[in-house]
Every structure is written in structure tokens, then in C-alpha cells.
């Protein structure tokens, strides 16, 4: 027991003896105080009370287990932001192993014992929510670990249940209950939590996760509760956690530790940006992060994508399904505009003609130099902002438009002839050597080429099925891996390739497909067509002119 808990107060003796609860002078608003750690907490500011409470806890596990809990700078910033007046939801996105779950468990213990408010509500309720019970159990174990580090007199006030339900009940200061729930919103309908921790929100299943989240947030309003939504980055912009970060509603505090996209995986400065605890003795050390990054680079594939997502906190899919190309494989082709090769030699134009309301995309490829360019076009209705909201990508389309990578043409549809003519004008008078497109859109392409004055340009018909698609994908990948593609940084192409996957038949043939129904892979499809045809042209031997004998 601490000195503050054993010292008798001056003045008149207590009426009920030395073991009676401490009076409301400790700042509990009249509720009985039966917890020694609350004696050092003063004032009405929730953040300051939380920081004072956390400073008295001991680290429950790890290489510094048993030592006093010392918060890092980024942790203090999150506590102050998430517990500020007017904030209902606190969002924390950070790399794996930076004690975000441990911090939220400490705040949960503070709420459980009534430390966050000078006049705490009685019968407080804390929820640990996660995709499944095992994931939620992580935060629960941290909570129990903090309790086990308390003085024995304080531990006696807690009842820990580890049966079919994971619960911790606190008997003093008005009482409180902390419990674990999984992603089944029906199980908490009617609840009224005062604090909810939504752990690893990016990993929740979309349908069940939305149901659970909505049930929790609706329950928070009954008692002016707060939610802490913590997670590493989601794999894409359409994830619910990404939407929270990119478009936070009023009353939301956002703290995101995500480095700029496109940096090398072993770049130390950006690693520390995603893992600020590394320099303050929390989680992985800087040397370990760099070493792990280089191992991931050497392994490549899903290992590197997983490292970027979990350790670098980047929005990169870590799924092991067959992606067209990984993020790092595509980034190897990106060069600065000053280093981009010239437009020399014949140009191949790959075209993916969109439907009535979808994107049309074109890609230019110069096989002799390896230069690749791409452009996409949407109809003007709906607007790019509305279309981005509907597709779950926020302002991405508007940013592409500002960068000159995306254009708008037509009203409800993109007119094929006018669009193809506009695309060819980007070549500054140079006529493409050939055009590649989908054979199933034969009639539309013929009409568009006639309208654009390109009827004499050879057209190479390709299919997007198993036969032609598998060959084109393999040629594209080979050209990329052999360093025969050079492209300026393009948000349009990055977005398209992040949504592009391949379906594999039993014979091992690949064909292009979308990773999500709202994904836009048109620019990726056009690039595959152009590069594959360019590779065929390079592989075809040049015909020598015949000698005419006189």
C-alpha cells in the first residue's frame, strides 16, 4: 500500500474507524472512495485526471514488466485529444506493437474505477469490442494485468470472470463493469456503455462490423459515453476505419501515424513516423524494424505487403490472394518526371472502353524506351466528388483531376469517338502504331475509330478471358520485373493496380478482375494491353527488305 493510502488525515477521527471509506474530499463528488490510486487525482479535466491515474499503474508484461507506466509523447497527445471536451470518438492509427491496446486498457481501468470524472456515474459500463473473442481478449488481459499490479487491498475490490463471459466488476466508487464482446451487434442492443474500445477496427468483417459499431455508438449517447477506435491501417480507402480517418464526423479526434506512400520499406525516418514508440522504449526497436523491413524486401510478395500494412501502417492489402502486381513491384517502375524516357519509336495505345457510366481509360507505351503514360475519363454526371463518395474513395478522383490524370467528357456517358480523338491528341500529332482493345466491344471501337479519324490505324483485338488475358498478364509482369516499364508517379495507376487481382483457373491461367465491386481497374487493364502488345512487337524479328534483282 502506498504512503498516501496509509497516512491518517489530520483533524477529528473518522466516525466509522480507520478502515472506513475515504470521504468525498478526494474529488469523487460524494461517492465513497475505496481505491487508493484515486487519492492523487485532482481537478475536473478528464485528460489530466487520466494521465495522473495512468502514471500510478505498472506495466503488466513485456521486457519492462513491473516498472511504473510511463507514457510516450504520442500517447499523452492521444489521451488529451480523445478525452477533450466535445469529443465522442477518439481514433488512433499506428503501427503494430506501439501499445495502443495497452493504452486503451489503461484508460478503460480509469473509467472502470471512476477516475476520469470528478463526479463519476454509478454503474459504469466498459466494452472491449473486436472482430472475435480472442482479439478482444487482448485488451481484457491488459486490464487484468494492470489490476494484478495494484495493492492487495485494491485488488480485493475487483471480481474477474474468465468463463463463458470475460468480465471485470468493480465494487467501489459507484461500481462498474468491463466486458468483452465480439462482432455481433445484436448481443449489445439495449446497452449503455460509458466507454467502448473498438480494437483493430480495420480487421472487422464489413457487415458484422458495421452492425456492432452502430449498436455501440447508439448506446454511447444514452450516458454521454466515449469510444476509442484503434487499429493499424486498413488495406484500402473503402474500409470503414479508413472512412473514419479520412472523413471524420463532428466530435471526432483523429491521430494517424502513417508515412507518405511510395517510400522504401526500410526507410528509417518513415518507419519511426509509423512507430513513434520505437525511440521511447515501446515495442520494436529501430534496428529491429530496419532489419525486419530488409527481410521483407528480400522475401517480397505478401510478406512485404504485410510488413507495409502492419509495421509501416500503410494502406496496403496484406492478403495472400493473387494480385496482379504488389505495391513494391509497381513502385519499382516509378521514376521522377525528369528521369522519364523520351517518347521515341512506335507507340502502342491500349484502350479499355468503359460502359455507360464507368471510366474509360487509355495507356500509351513506347516499347523502345519503356515509357508508359495513362489517362482516365469519367462522364460529368455525377460529379467527381459524388462519384468518389459513392465508390468509397473520398476525394481521390478530384485529386486525379487536379493532377491531370483524369478528365471529364460528356454528360451521363463518355462519347467513344470524341474521347478517342481527345486521347490521341495527347500524342502531339504522332499517330499510334496500333491500338489494342477488347474484341467484345468490336462495333463500338470501329465507330469510335472512324469518328476519331483513326480508321487506318491497325487495331489488335484482345480478349480479357483466360486465353488472351493470361498471355497479356504474363507479358506485362515480365516487362515490369525486367525493368522495361518506366512511369511517372500516377495516382490513377496506383489506384487501379491496388484494386486489380487475377483469377486463376485449374490450369494456372490468369485473367484480370476487380478486388472489390466498386474498384476501378480500367487504367490497369489498358496498361496491360499496351505493354503486352509492345512486348510482342519487340519479340518479333524485323523483316529485312528483299533484294530486287535486275
From TrEMBL:
Record-annotated Terminase large subunit-like ATPase domain positions: 92-234
Region (Disordered): 1-25
A biological-process GO annotation: regulation of DNA-templated transcription
Name of the protein in its database record: Phage terminase-like protein, large subunit, contains N-terminal HTH domain
InterPro entries: HMGI/Y_DNA-bd_CS (IPR000637), P-loop_NTPase (IPR027417), TerL_ATPase (IPR046461), Terminase_largesu-like (IPR005021)
Pfam families (UniProt xref): TerL_ATPase (PF03354)
Amino acid at each position: 500500500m502506498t504512503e498516501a493510502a496509509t497516512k491518517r488525515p489530520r483533524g477529528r477521527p473518522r466516525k466509522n474507524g480507520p478502515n472506513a471509506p475515504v470521504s468525498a474530499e478526494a474529488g469523487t463528488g460524494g461517492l465513497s472512495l475505496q481505491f487508493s490510486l484515486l487519492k492523487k487525482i485532482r481537478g475536473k479535466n478528464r485528460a489530466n485526471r487520466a494521465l495522473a491515474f495512468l502514471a500510478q499503474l505498472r506495466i503488466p508484461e513485456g521486457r519492462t514488466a513491473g516498472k511504473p507506466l510511463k507514457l510516450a509523447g504520442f500517447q499523452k497527445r492521444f489521451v488529451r485529444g480523445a478525452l477533450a471536451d466535445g469529443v465522442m470518438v477518439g481514433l488512433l492509427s499506428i503501427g503494430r506493437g506501439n501499445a495502443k491496446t495497452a493504452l486503451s486498457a489503461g484508460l478503460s481501468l480509469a473509467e472502470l474505477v471512476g477516475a476520469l470524472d470528478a463526479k463519476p456515474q454509478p454503474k459504469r459500463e466498459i466494452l472491449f469490442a473486436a472482430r472475435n473473442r480472442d482479439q478482444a481478449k487482448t485488451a481484457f488481459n491488459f486490464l487484468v494485468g494492470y489490476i494484478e499490479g495494484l495493492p492487495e487491498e485494491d485488488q480485493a475490490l475487483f471480481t474477474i470472470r474468465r468463463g463463458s463471459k470475460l468480465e471485470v466488476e468493480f465494487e467501489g466508487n459507484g461500481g462498474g463493469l468491463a466486458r468483452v464482446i465480439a462482432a455481433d451487434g445484436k448481443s449489445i442492443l439495449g446497452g449503455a456503455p460509458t466507454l467502448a474500445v473498438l480494437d483493430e477496427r480495420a480487421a472487422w468483417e464489413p457487415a458484422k462490423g458495421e452492425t456492432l459499431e452502430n449498436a455501440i455508438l447508439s448506446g454511447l449517447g444514452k450516458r454521454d459515453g466515449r469510444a476509442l477506435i484503434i487499429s493499424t491501417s486498413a488495406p484500402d480507402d473503402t474500409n470503414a476505419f479508413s472512412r473514419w480517418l479520412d472523413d471524420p464526423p463532428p466530435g471526432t479526434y483523429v491521430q494517424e501515424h502513417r508515412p507518405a506512400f511510395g517510400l522504401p520499406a526500410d526507410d528509417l525516418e518513415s518507419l519511426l513516423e509509423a512507430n513513434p514508440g520505437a525511440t521511447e522504449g515501446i515495442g520494436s526497436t529501430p534496428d529491429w524494424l530496419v532489419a525486419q523491413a530488409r527481410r521483407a524486401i528480400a522475401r517480397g510478395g505478401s510478406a512485404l505487403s504485410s510488413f507495409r500494412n502492419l509495421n509501416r501502417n500503410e494502406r496496403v492489402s496484406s492478403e495472400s490472394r493473387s494480385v496482379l502486381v504488389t505495391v513494391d513491384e509497381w513502385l519499382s517502375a516509378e521514376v521522377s518526371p525528369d528521369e522519364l524516357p523520351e517518347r521515341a519509336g512506335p507507340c502502342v495505345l491500349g484502350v479499355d472502353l468503359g460502359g455507360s457510366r464507368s471510366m474509360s481509360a487509355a495507356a500509351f507505351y513506347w516499347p523502345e524506351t519503356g515509357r508508359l503514360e495513362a489517362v482516365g475519363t469519367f462522364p460529368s454526371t455525377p460529379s467527381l466528388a459524388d462519384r468518389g463518395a459513392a465508390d468509397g474513395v473520398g476525394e481521390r478522383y478530384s485529386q486525379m483531376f487536379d493532377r491531370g490524370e483524369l478528365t471529364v467528357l460528356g454528360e451521363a456517358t463518355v462519347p467513344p469517338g470524341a474521347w478517342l480523338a481527345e486521347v490521341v491528341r495527347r500524342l502531339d500529332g504522332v499517330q499510334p502504331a496500333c491500338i489494342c482493345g477488347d474484341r467484345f466491344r468490336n462495333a463500338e471501337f470501329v465507330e469510335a475509330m472512324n469518328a476519331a479519324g483513326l480508321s487506318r490505324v491497325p487495331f489488335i483485338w484482345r480478349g480479357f478471358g483466360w486465353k488472351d488475358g493470361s498471355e497479356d498478364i504474363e507479358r506485362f509482369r515480365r516487362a515490369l520485373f525486367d525493368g522495361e516499364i518506366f512511369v511517372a508517379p500516377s495516382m490513377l495507376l496506383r489506384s487501379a493496380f491496388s484494386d486489380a487481382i487475377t483469377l486463376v483457373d485449374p490450369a494456372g491461367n490468369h485473367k484480370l478482375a476487380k478486388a472489390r465491386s466498386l474498384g476501378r481497374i480500367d487504367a490497369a487493364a489498358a496498361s496491360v494491353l499496351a505493354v503486352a502488345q509492345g512486348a510482342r512487337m519487340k519479340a518479333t524479328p524485323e523483316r529485312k527488305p528483299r533484294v530486287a534483282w535486275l
